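Field: sequence (string)
Field: structure_tokens (string)

Example rows 1 and 2, in order.
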Amino acid sequence: MTTMSSAEHTRRDFLYIATGAVGAVGAAAVTWPLISQMNPDASTVAAGAPIEVDLAPVAEGQVIKVFWRGKPIFINHRSKKEIDDARNVNVGSLPDPEPDQQRVKSGKDEWLVLIGICTHLGCIPIAHQGSYNGYFCPCHGSVYDTSGRIRSGPAPTNLPLPPYEFVSDTKIRIG
């Protein structure tokens, strides 16, 4: 008569192990998409990421437009005359009083970085236009000066400033 030892493997042991392995793989296959769908979309991650802009090719007097978080950002390489015009304004006479020095980084007065969205109804102003040669919103007539401050029209506040910093003499990081 043959007796079976408990040390020998049987078909039943194999079936238990195989069933457990298939169950573990099945549980992982169900859990993975559930967890993965909770991550943000790649375009969402990219939209909120900081961007770096090289300022070296921007000529004096030129305004470039880049996009950050889906918003137009105006980067203006201001001339000495534009800076002087912005600084020689009686700040108390402005609808939203703010000195030009607070709208630029110290030592980098020639670079003005603005969110290019009119504060009235969200239109995109045009650079080097209007009575003050700053920004003009053609939709409803808001006029901004060379520092992006509201001078006339229905806009209630100045053009907003995005968070930015200089990472070198010719490069900025927005965001």
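Row 2 begins here:
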Amino acid sequence: MAHRMIKAYVINLDRDRERWAHVERQGQQLGIAWTRVVAVDKLEEAIAQRAAGARPGALGFIMSAGAIACFESHRKVWRLIVDSGDEYGAVFEDDVVCSQALPAFLSSTDWLPGGCDVAKLETFLVKATVSTTPATTYMQRKVLRLYGRHLGACAYVISRQTAARLLPLTETPADPVDEVLFNAQSMLFPPLTLYQVDPAPCIQGMLLEMDQDHEYLKSSNDRNAKLANKRYRNTAHYLTRKVVRLWGKLLEAFGHRERRRIEFTPD
């Protein structure tokens, strides 16, 4: 297999200069050449208008201006990946904290399993349902099939074909980008072949409590409203999810899947 570099795109608002400096420092230390992508701003009038008219999405969220702008920023990167012609691209948000292992994951596509749509490089330090047997092992880290909810869209690799497929399906996003990609309740989750790197080579700064010492790493996103009773779209969806959960439990019982906490290691 050819050793193809994975281009690293970083979403960053023009006004968030300190966050960009945070990313640049890591790039200089690790030898990563970031491609900065100007983020869509939640203060834009068009974004504010969309937020004002937002209705509950399939997952029960009422999207804030910040969530809409964030999703549109990710879609902006997806378009760049499609236009690049590259097989894969890596998407990062500007509060990312990178381990020493990240450059190796960006230096080659060899570690990506065949048919991979999205490979998650970060962790929320929570339990996720993953395969017990890794598809591949790289840099002493397992690349596990991801079967259950594991939120966060701060660092992931996405294929060009998947980006092209998602763009028309997310023209008017009604739920946050990480919920759409990494929540098993999402209609887009089942068709995607998702993987999780474990331990993860990336994490959001707030999860390391870096935002307590660095004000610029605090989230400036506004909260989304969440309707507690908007969990299932209809009876068919309810029954389908019950069957899927039961099947997942059986696979766990027979040792094919497990729920495990995904850790972050800095080296």
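free_text_note (row 2): The radius of gyration is 18 Å.
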